[in-house]
């Protein structure tokens, strides 16, 4: 269980914030010793897409930290008030300028040491409808022979794209879930077949 360090209570300004288990709760939470304010911290969701177009898929080069200069599929933090599909397509639009249609979920994986959950969809490219944003320096549709494997942001992205390319060759896509801390992002496999 990780908490961001909280020095000051956001309600009363006190410096007396300590981890305590609130009455009836199960987890320690940063709790103000002066006014009793409890801070609830929960994982953030990162949504993104593998964007398919004519046998290729879209990668973006990051213009900002972390991983500036590295390539990835477009993905970013879900905002309040949107669905996870909306988050994924919004991030795609912001980072690449592309309008896409979500085809289905492809990968769900947890990164517990970062308190993050990634939800990655397959999506169909429709069109570029605006310039890409400041988080991106370059975008490119690549086929399986053009992936900059040594310049991808994270091992998880390598794994997702490796599996995607293999499945694309067979014309059947599974749904995966896994855990970054177990070394493999996708230990569990489901394909669309009856048991
Ligand atoms: Zn307080």
From TrEMBL:
Protein name per UniProt: NUDIX hydrolase
Listed GO MF terms: hydrolase activity
Annotated family: Belongs to the Nudix hydrolase family.
Record flagged with keyword Membrane: no
Superkingdom classification of source: Bacteria
Source species of the chain: Photobacterium profundum 3TCK
Domain Nudix hydrolase: 42-164
InterPro entries documented for this protein: Nudix_hydrolase, NUDIX_hydrolase-like_dom_sf, NUDIX_hydrolase_CS, NUDIX_hydrolase_dom, Nudix_N
One Pfam family in the UniProt entry: Zn_ribbon_Nudix
Membrane spanning residue stretches: none
CDD domains recorded: NUDIX_Hydrolase
Classification lineage: Bacteria, Pseudomonadati, Pseudomonadota, Gammaproteobacteria, Vibrionales
Cofactor(s) needed for function: Mg(2+)
Record keywords, A-Z: Hydrolase, Magnesium
